[in-house]
Amino acid sequence: MSHTAHIPSHRKPRRSASKLALRAGVAGGVLSTIAVAGAAGPASAEPVTETIEMPTLGSLGTDLSSAVAASAEASQQEALDQSLEAQEAAALQTAAKEAKKAKAEADRKAEAERAEKARQEAEAKAERERAEAEARAEAQARASRDSARTQLSTTSASSDSDSGSGSSNDSGSSAGSSSESTQVSSGTAASIVAFARAQVGDAYVTGGTGPNSWDCSGLVQAAYAAAGIDLPRISYQQSSMGTSVSLSNLQPGDVLYWGSRSGSYHVAIYVGGGKYVGAQNSSTGVVERSLDWDPPSGAVRLL
Description:
Elements: H1 17-40, H2 57-169, H3 174-198, E1 203-204, E2 213-214, H4 216-226, H5 235-239, E3 243-245, E4 255-260, E5 263-272, E6 275-281, E7 285-290, E8 298-301
Parallel strand pairs: 1-2
Antiparallel strand pairs: 3-8, 4-5, 4-8, 5-6, 6-7
């Protein structure tokens, strides 16, 4: 038995093909050098004294491994740099798209704000012009009503003066008395009609009693008050007074009513010519209308 039998055998690691090729190349080079030196030896008088120092196989393997590792690291770094460049390019492209989109949205909002501002300014201007037009119309209507009321007062005073004069001249005759009664009645009716017509164009307001807004019974009450006649405030109370008359026998100053006489819900003043003046509603205000526009239920005469 061998004296080394007790030592476990170990299989040597297999050398890679590249290392075997390298060593074979190095060995071949050494043998070639020796062969050349041997062929020249007998003919030369001087022995070979120069020694060629060859690299060891261990150092060559280490250098090769270092070179391979460095090449792999360089390749990996280059691949990483290219990946970073691609990511940066993609990020720049995305940022450019987002910036373009944000700019378009900002432009759209700015345009919408400008349009809204222009619309509000146009509406405000139209509202100012409408208010100014209404104010001018109201001022003209007020001036017209004031003029009509002044004329009404002058006419009423003249009628009262003429009536008093006629009464003193013919106090003892029945004909004179009848003439006076006719003049007073005509003057009173004219005053009522003139006052009612002077309010046309005023607003309708529930409970309104003037001077620039009325409801139906408030207007009738004020028109009769202008002629010196007191009437109740409520429409059914007004239509319950006086004498009932046919719609075919109306006279200026008669009170028209809608509904039953003792339960009327609307009243107006007949002004002659088949027309009446009344505070109709909040949409129309005080108007002068034909009887056909809204035929009344009946009429009463208070004069």
